[in-house]
Amino acid sequence: MGEGELRDSGSRLTAQLFAIPSTAERVRRTFFAALNYAHRTNPDKVPSDLAWRSVYSFRNIDRPRTRFLSVSEAKRLLNTMPQDFRQLARGALYTGLRLGELLALTVSDFGDGQIHVRHSTLSCLCYVTDHYIVTWLCV
Mean per-residue pLDDT for 105-118? Predict the structure, then answer.
């Protein structure tokens, strides 16, 4: 890949990233944090923060997505995965646990239809019935 092609693909990637407001806002916050750090620690080279203080952030973009997979979508997703990873993904779909929470589970965390999630922001019990209906009790 030549320099021109690399520049063009980088421009397309940048355009795709910034087409999503939440990504653009995350990049903006990171960049401004670096600028503020430079201003605070190196006032000779960055004497003023006025240039970026006037830039506004995106509005109403930090709302979480609340879309859930349908049963057919979940089946299609699982069928595209390698068998060893499929088990982990099925566990995430059945319980709603994140990857780190799933990987931290030990045999002692399972019993009597319960999964005790110790490595989470909250200490939770996950109740799984025979039909994979999940209820949570968090303390």
Answer: 78
Q: What is the token pair recorded at 86?
A: 């499929």
Residue 31 pLDDT greater than 50, yes or no: yes
Query: Cβ(86)–Cβ(78) under 8 Å?
Result: yes
Identify whether the C-beta of residue 94 lies closer than 8 Å to the C-beta of residue 102.
Answer: no
In angstroms, what CA-CA distances link 57 with 11, 15, 20, 34, 135? Answer: 22, 18, 13, 16, 38
116-124: long-range contacts at Cβ-Cβ below 8 A with a sequence spacing of 24 or more? none
pTM (2 decimals)? 0.46
Cβ-Cβ contacts under 8 Å for 138 (sequence gap 6 or more):
122, 123, 124, 125
